From TrEMBL:
<feature type="domain" description="HTH cro/C1-type">
    <location>
        <begin position="14"/>
        <end position="68"/>
    </location>
</feature>
<dbReference type="Pfam" id="PF01381">
    <property type="entry name" value="HTH_3"/>
</dbReference>
<keyword id="KW-0238">DNA-binding</keyword>
<dbReference type="InterPro" id="IPR050807">
    <property type="entry name" value="TransReg_Diox_bact_type"/>
</dbReference>
<dbReference type="InterPro" id="IPR010982">
    <property type="entry name" value="Lambda_DNA-bd_dom_sf"/>
</dbReference>
<dbReference type="InterPro" id="IPR001387">
    <property type="entry name" value="Cro/C1-type_HTH"/>
</dbReference>
<protein>
    <submittedName>
        <fullName>Helix-turn-helix transcriptional regulator</fullName>
    </submittedName>
</protein>
Amino acid sequence: MTEQDIKQQVAYRIRETRKAKGLTQKELATLLAVGEPTVNGYESGKQNLTIETLQKIAIALKVSVKDFLQ
């Protein structure tokens, strides 16, 4: 699995988790104190994620970081 594959997989899981929680990108952006385009970047795999940012997303969505990496 390439780095790009991993980024796309994590991006997909963020998007699907957000949708499953009934949140819009704007609502998630508010929870993370970032702009909506930033959340769009996370979900498209175009915005690089640090472990710290991934942890903030997990907390906002009330899931484990592991859920994004499995």
